[in-house]
Amino acid sequence: MFVTLEGIEGAGKSTLMNLLVQELEKRGLPFVRTREPGGCGLGARLRPLLLDVSSSLDSRAELFLFLADRAQHVAEIIRPALERGEWVLCDRYADSTIAYQGYGRGMDADRLQELNDHATGGLWPERTLLLDLPVEEGLKRARARNGREGLSTSEGRFEAEELAFHQRIRQGFLARAVRWPERFCVLDARRSPEELLKAAVAALNLD
Ligand code: Z5A
């Protein structure tokens, strides 16, 4: 079962992922937990280039780095795990490219869909949990967490974008959820982590 978690920055993907992993462990289900960018060796090297505020990437170069990461990630990690019959839980995947590079940066969404098909050999998740909340709330959470945990501010190339950029991304994710209602499950990310876990467990038929 291939599951992705999507949403704007600070939506609570990592928090929900931590809780979901415990549910899979409790049930003895084999799984791989991974993320983009950075879920494979190549991605780990690309991640700083993609997120560092000091890299001045052209938006097309940025797009192809995300796609290169994804192609390798699918070939090296995701597809083999699915072939072994394991669950794959992935924090961000192709929908992020269409939301960020498409709706955010203004690239053509249909073309990005095709490029993603090419990069992944047509592999799309069976279920996508979209954590939705107002952009101001997400950014506030992310900044508070970074301050609390003393996280590097250099990984802030996207965070540094204007509010309207993040709002377009939120709308982009929601538009995709309307287009693929059988794949997407939209969760109100203002709810508590425990309530979100309950909804996610139901959406994944784990209960
Ligand atoms: N990107 C792209 O442009 N194109 C692509 O194709 C791909 C990615 C794949 C990756 O950033 C960036 O790359 C991302 C999109 C772009 N940039 N942005 N923006 P990343 O991997 O470094 O970070 P992220 O994916 O944006 O996630 P995040 O900021 O780490 O947030 P999160 O995982 O969704 O949230 P969290 O860490 O679980 O929670 C944030 C805080 O809120 C934390 O203090 C929690 O304790 C708190 N929290 C969490 N859940 C709750 C609830 N339910 N209530 C209250 N508080 C909560």
Main β-sheet, in a few words?
5 strands, parallel
- N-to-C CA distance: 15 Å
Number of strands: 5
Query: What's the CATH C level?
Result: Alpha Beta
Q: Kindly give the count of domains.
A: 1
Radius of gyration, whole Å: 16 Å
- Taken in chain order, the helices and strands follow as EHEHHEHHEHHEH
Query: What is the multimeric organization of the chains shown?
Result: single chain
**Bound small molecules, which ones?**
ligand Z5A
Spell out the blueprint of helices and strands.
Layout: E1 2-7, H1 13-26, E2 31-35, H2 41-51, H3 59-83, E3 87-91, H4 94-104, H5 109-120, E4 127-132, H6 135-149, H7 163-179, E5 184-188, H8 193-203
Parallel strand pairs: 1-3, 1-4, 2-3, 4-5
Helix pairs in contact: 1-8, 2-3, 3-5, 4-5, 4-7
Task: Describe the overall structure.
About 55% of the residues lie in helices and about 15% in strands. The protein is an alpha/beta fold and about 210 residues long. The chain has one domain (about 1-205): 3-Layer(aba) Sandwich (Rossmann fold), CATH 3.40.50. The chain has a five-stranded parallel β-sheet with strand order 2-3-1-4-5, with helices on both faces. α2 runs antiparallel to α3 and α4 crosses α7 (about 165-180). The protein is globular, with a radius of gyration of 16 Å. Ligand Z5A binds near residues 9 and 51.
